């Protein structure tokens, strides 16, 4: 077993780029297990490094002309243990920016909205708004600007409500009652 510092260094400096360079890198469950175990690690630095490594993998695979492989790895991680809205965001952005696949981006944006609908947590509300913005962008890319209006309006209302609630100050007050 590697200690936390070694895991941090491995993930932060090499793993994502190196995995993308291997023609079948990320296809095997054991390749993706590093991202999953890193994301669930007790040490916050290792969790951050795992997130960074995954981002580097996606960026490098895309730069190598393999955004399809990046999409497949992100989808497998979503199905295989990382139920993370950030994975859906990454997939939607890839679909819009590199795959010219606005339909997939729309479906992924709708999935983000659905996953974040039940929670009144401020972060979930921000993620829901970002899903709505992705839906709007995908609708515009599909040539249906009228369909973009409703998700944009709802995202604007949701973000304005969060702004008026000043959750940032509320959290500061809970952490430090002197504020």
SSE blueprint and pairings:
Elements: H1 4-21, H2 29-39, H3 44-63, H4 67-79, H5 85-97, H6 102-116, H7 122-141, H8 145-165, H9 167-175
Helix pairs in contact: 1-3, 2-3, 3-4, 4-5, 5-6, 5-7, 6-7, 7-8
Q: How much helicity do the residues have?
A: over 70%
> Low-confidence spans: pLDDT under 50, at least 5 residues?
none
Chain-averaged pLDDT: 88
Largest sheet: none
Content-based structural category: mainly alpha
Structure description:
The protein has helices at residues 4-21, 29-39, 44-63, 67-79, 85-97, 102-116, 122-141, 145-165, 167-175. The mean pLDDT is 88. The protein has 179 residues and is mostly helical. The protein contains nine helices and no strands.
Features:
179 residues; mainly alpha; 9 helices; flat
Summarize the structure.
The protein has helices spanning 4-21, 29-39, 44-63, 67-79, 85-97, 102-116, 122-141, 145-165, 167-175. The protein has 179 residues and is mainly α. The mean pLDDT is 88.
């Amino acid at each position: 077993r590697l200690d936390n510092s070694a895991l941090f260094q491995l993930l932060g400096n090499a793993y994502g780029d190196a995995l993308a360079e291997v023609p079948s890198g990320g296809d095997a469950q054991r390749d993706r297990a590093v991202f999953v175990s890193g994301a669930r690690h007790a040490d916050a630095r290792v969790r951050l490094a795992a997130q960074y490594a995954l981002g580097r993998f996606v960026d490098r695979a895309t730069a190598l002309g393999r955004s399809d492989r990046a999409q497949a790895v992100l989808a497998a991680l979503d199905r295989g243990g990382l139920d993370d809205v950030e994975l859906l965001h990454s997939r939607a952005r890839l679909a819009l920016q590199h795959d010219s696949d606005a339909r997939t981006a729309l479906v992924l944006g709708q999935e983000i909205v659905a996953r974040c609908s039940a929670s009144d947590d401020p972060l979930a509300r921000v993620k829901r708004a970002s899903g709505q913005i992705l839906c709007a962008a995908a609708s515009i890319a599909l040539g249906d600007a009228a369909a973009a209006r409703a998700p944009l309006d709802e995202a604007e209302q949701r973000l304005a409500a969060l702004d008026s609630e000043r959750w940032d100050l509320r959290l500061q007050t809970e952490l430090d009652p002197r504020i």
